[in-house]
């Protein structure tokens, strides 16, 4: 919501009719532009764009909360997949704008505003990634109704595809204040019109942590229990803000030396900064960063400032306190050594953010570097002085990480130079049953759990383009392992060599990068049993790809095979079933109105229960199988998913495939 137009609202002098007409035409043209090219305004017209509509409306309420006038926001997903967003703010002004003769409310709802304009005094900094405003939501909704409570009255206006159906009118009285927006996305624009509860909940949870003190309620009315209450609902509220966010992100990891997250904040200066961080006992770096409540997945200058402060302060502390031992003169630290096992959230507010990078989620404003590094350096220094026991453990961990990195580097060197003592002569792994075709676009590699299922897959496959690599036992958990262990692990080495991935050192940054030029397969299909072990192994393999070969996921090369859960049989008639509903239908069908007891239902738990022909026809034949493509929608989400799974609890792991991972279903 921009305030520039609101400021011009005066009591209610009627403007000339001609002005009124002119403003209306401008509004209509703007909304028409949005409907002509919706993707330009909201990103796309699929799932993301659809959910973007909610973010746009909620952001306006968040702005009102940040201004200090609102502490409750309720989002409702209605039975018809329409959305209601209600807040207890001051209510959008409804007076008549002197210039246009139109009510401020109607202007806000119908006039397109270029970019997210800014009130420089208050940090009105949300407005969504595209900052397009609620008028876009209006243009892309078949029906929208806004209800405002302020000045003792209840106002309303309705629109269809952005066009007002009547002037703002008073429909009652109320002592409350607030704004309620109800909209139904236009199904002639969006390819998807079903909102995903988990997507909405994830974003609202994040907003609650980033903006402490706001109650954000979510109700999904599409499914009710016997008492008529929503099956799915949430109440997101954080008193502790980023400190609680970091604890939430790290809930399955054990913190180092039992430390509590550090918190640093500076509301002074041009760029308000908030940072919370904690070290855990594991090996990965998990930094989430936000600019104006928007997740900057690609990082940028604020993350750069954070990292440089961490390295500088920790190194100085270690040196000043003689914690590095005698050898240390020889160890050359790398920035990443200081961030192993570090989980942190950085949130900055920038008045005119410059977004760069492939997905426009990388902050470019240079002033953010020193703003963040200044705050982090100051507080971290003090914290280390005050927590010598924890500080010692952090330094020890840094040392260990540096040593593991140096050991790993010498393994890389051998891989790159192709020395014979590494990876059985650099040939393909002995366990790989390769395909005869060599065009990577046509070739598929099945990663199969267990030697026995691997054998069945070898018999069942089409050897022209399908290769099989059986994986034995448990893959190393890369989340917990030290870096050099990853490259020494037999199963992992087999995967690397079979895929034909090479590692290269980037001359500029010194970081190790993957080269996919020699990638041998463009479909890498994980095929595991439909039981808990299978799901664990699948998760480990996915974690390996996510942490160490993310480019494969980004390129859409990773898939998950879908073996059937049941075989329903009567005499010679057979039906494979993937869901309970399928199974029930198949039993009915084969019983043919007769007794269902005569129908035999076999539950497949392991791939080994199928013979080669069955495995081919249900799971491997491109004409009949279903594959799920793995797409990591959001690195932060994915990281949380993986870390949850990598905890010691079995139950959350099992839920992984069904619930948390972001897959697009594709039939290939
Ligand atoms: C500008 C001025 C005022 C309220 C708002 C914007 C406002 C906008 C939205 C959008 C959703 N919820 C909102 N709540 C408030 C108030 C000006 C005043 O009362 O002095």
Describe what this molecule looks like in 3D.
It is a single chain. The chain is α+β, with helices and mostly antiparallel strands. It has 4 domains: 2-29, no CATH class; 36-192, Heat Shock Protein 90, CATH 3.30.565; 242-408, Ribosomal Protein S5, domain 2 (2-Layer Sandwich), CATH 3.30.230.10; 418-563 and 628-632, Rossmann fold (3-Layer(aba) Sandwich). It is built from 19 helices and 27 strands. The strands form 6 sheets. Strands 1, 2, 3, 4, 5, 6, 7, 8 and 9 form a 9-stranded mixed β-sheet that branches. Strands 18-17-21-22-26-27 form a 6-stranded mixed β-sheet, sandwiched between helices. β8 (215-224) and β9 form a beta hairpin. α11 (451-460) packs across α17 (612-620), α14 crosses α18 (635-646) and α18 packs antiparallel against α19. Mean pLDDT is 85; it is low at 1-18, 114-130, 418-425 and 647-668. The site of 3-[3-(1H-pyrrolo[2,3-b]pyridin-5-yl)phenyl]propanoic acid has 13 residues, from α3.
Summed up:
This protein is an alpha+beta fold and 668 residues long.
Provide the low-confidence segments as ranges.
Answer: 1-18, 114-130, 418-425, 647-668
* Apparent shape: globular
CATH topology tier name of the largest domain: Ribosomal Protein S5, domain 2
Number of strands: 27
| Ions and ligands | 3-[3-(1H-pyrrolo[2,3-b]pyridin-5-yl)phenyl]propanoic acid
Quick one: CATH class of the largest domain? Alpha Beta
Strand content: 15-25%
What structural class results from the helix and strand content? alpha+beta
Total number of distinct structural domains: 4
Could you report the average pLDDT, rounded to the nearest whole number?
85
Quote the distance from N terminus to C terminus: 44 Å
CATH architect. name of the largest domain: 2-Layer Sandwich
Tell me the radius of gyration.
29 Å
Give the helix tally.
19
Helix fraction, binned, reads 25-40%
């Amino acid at each position: 919501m921009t305030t520039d137009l609101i400021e011009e609202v005066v009591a209610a002098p009627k403007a000339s009719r001609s002005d009124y007409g002119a403003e209306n035409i401008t509004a209509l043209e703007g909304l028409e532009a949005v409907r002509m090219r919706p993707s330009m305004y909201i990103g796309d017209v699929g799932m993301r764009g659809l959910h973007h509509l909610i973010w746009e409306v909620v952001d306006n309420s968040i702005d009102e909360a940040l201004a200090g006038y609102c502490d409750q926001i309720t989002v409702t997903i209605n039975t018809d997949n329409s959305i209601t967003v209600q807040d207890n703010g001051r209510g959008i002004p409804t007076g008549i704008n002197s210039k246009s003769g139109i009510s401020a409310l109607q202007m806000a709802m119908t006039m397109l505003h270029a970019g997210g304009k800014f009130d420089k005094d208050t940090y009105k900094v949300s407005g969504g990634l595209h900052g397009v405003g609620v008028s876009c939501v209006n243009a892309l909704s078949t029906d929208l109704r806004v209800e405002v409570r302020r000045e003792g009255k209840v106002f309303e206006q309705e629109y269809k595809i952005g066009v007002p159906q009547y002037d703002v009118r008073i429909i009652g009285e109320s002592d409350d204040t607030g704004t309620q927006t109800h909209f139904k996305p236009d199904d002639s624009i969006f390819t998807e019109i079903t909102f995903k509860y988990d997507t909405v909940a994830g974003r609202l949870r994040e907003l609650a942590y980033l903006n402490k003190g706001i109650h954000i309620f979510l109700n999904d009315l599409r499914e009710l229990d016997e008492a008529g209450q929503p099956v799915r609902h949430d109440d997101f509220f954080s008193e502790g803000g980023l400190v609680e966010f970091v604890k939430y992100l790290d809930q399955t990891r054990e913190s180092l030396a039992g430390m509590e997250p550090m918190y640093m904040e500076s509301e002074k200066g041009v760029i308000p900064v908030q940072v919370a961080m904690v070290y855990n006992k594991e090996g990965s770096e998990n930094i989430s960063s936000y600019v104006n409540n928007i997740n900057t997945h690609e990082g940028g200058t604020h993350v750069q400032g954070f990292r440089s402060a961490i390295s500088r302060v920790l190194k100085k502390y270690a040196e000043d306190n003689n914690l590095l031992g005698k050898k240390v003169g020889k160890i050359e630290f790398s920035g990443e050594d200081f961030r192993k096992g570090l989980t942190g959230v950085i949130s900055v507010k920038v008045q005119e953010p410059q977004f760069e990078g492939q997905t426009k989620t990388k902050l470019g404003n240079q002033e953010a570097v020193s703003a963040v590094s200044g705050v982090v350096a100051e507080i971290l220094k003090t914290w280390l002085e005050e927590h010598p026991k924890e500080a010692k453990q952090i330094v020890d961990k840094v040392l260990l990480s540096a040593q593991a990195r140096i050991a790993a580097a010498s393994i890389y060197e051998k891989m790159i130079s192709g020395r014979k003592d590494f990876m059985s002569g650099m040939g393909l792994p002995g366990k790989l049953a390769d395909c005869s075709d060599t065009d990577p676009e046509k070739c598929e590699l099945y990663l199969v759990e267990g030697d026995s299922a691997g054998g069945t897959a070898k018999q069942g496959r089409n050897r022209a383009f399908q290769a099989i690599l059986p994986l034995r036992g448990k893959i190393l958990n890369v989340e917990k392992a030290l870096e050099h262990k990853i490259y020494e692990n037999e199963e992992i080495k087999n995967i690397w060599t079979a895929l034909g991935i090479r590692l290269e050192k980037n001359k500029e940054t010194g970081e190790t990068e993957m080269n996919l030029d020699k990638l041998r397969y463009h479909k890498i299909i994980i095929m595991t049993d439909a039981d808990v072990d299978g799901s664990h192994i699948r998760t480990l393999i996915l974690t390996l790809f996510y942490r160490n070969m993310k480019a494969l996921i980004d390129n859409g090369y990773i898939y998950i095979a879908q073996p059937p859960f049941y075989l329903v049989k009567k005499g010679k008639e057979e039906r494979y079933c993937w869901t309970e509903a399928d199974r029930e239908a198949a039993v009915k069908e084969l019983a043919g109105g007769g007794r269902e007891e005569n129908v035999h239902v076999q539950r497949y738990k392991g791939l080994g229960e199928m013979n080669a022909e069955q495995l081919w026809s249900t799971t491997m034949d491109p004409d009949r199988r279903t594959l799920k493509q793995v797409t990591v929608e959001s690195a932060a989400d994915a990281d949380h998913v993986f870390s949850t799974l990598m905890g010691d609890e079995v139950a959350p792991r099992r839920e992984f495939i069904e619930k948390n991972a972001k897959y697009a279903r594709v039939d290939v």
